[in-house]
């Protein structure tokens, strides 16, 4: 019998000063049995960092949601879809292969990868040349120490605040806060 995903609920208040975006999001995260708390929380941070696109790209008329992620390799970890069903933003976390990223770039207006583990630097050195032709792709590096700190904040029911200012994000809850400064690789 297959192990089912674990469901996490997050009430996320976003104050994105950089983009003038302020909103509350009631989110459901299904953590695949093979997914770690680190990866799940990085998905949440990635969604928070890109939430402003809901207004900037879709004029508020779109859906920002988590995808099937590890359950379905053809589905993003998170995405923004406009009212016509067009994928405006495809978000991946971790170290995806070049072929799925190329396919994602053909299916969405923009693709963003958030690499976060200690192996991310090795992954980037090996894949960087394969990704240069993908104009719709951005690759960001989250500090290695951020993921374990985020995992310590994971609870089945979370009340989180995300403050985005000067290109950095601070995610806070009653369990503490994590300050993350993403570095753009591509």
TrEMBL record:
Superkingdom as given in the UniProt entry: Bacteria
Name of the protein described by the UniProt record: YaeQ family protein
Source organism (scientific name): Hydrogenophaga luteola
């Amino acid at each position: 019998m297959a192990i089912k995903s674990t469901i996490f609920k997050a009430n996320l208040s976003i104050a994105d000063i950089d983009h003038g975006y302020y909103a509350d999001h009631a989110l459901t995260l299904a953590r695949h049995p093979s997914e770690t708390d680190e990866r799940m929380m990085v998905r949440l941070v990635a969604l928070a960092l890109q939430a402003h696109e809901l207004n900037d790209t879709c004029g508020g008329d779109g859906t920002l949601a988590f995808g099937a992620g590890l359950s379905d390799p053809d589905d993003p970890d998170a995405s923004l879809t406009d009212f016509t069903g067009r994928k405006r933003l495809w978000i991946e976390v971790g170290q995806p292969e070049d072929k799925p990223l190329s396919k994602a770039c053909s299916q969405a207006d923009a693709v963003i990868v958030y690499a976060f583990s200690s192996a991310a630097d090795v992954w980037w050195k090996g894949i960087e040349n394969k990704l240069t032709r993908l104009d719709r792709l951005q690759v960001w590096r989250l500090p290695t120490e951020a993921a374990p700190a985020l995992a310590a904040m994971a609870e089945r029911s979370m009340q989180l605040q995300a403050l985005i200012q000067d290109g950095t994000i601070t995610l806070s809850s009653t369990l503490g806060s994590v300050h993350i400064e993403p570095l753009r690789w591509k």
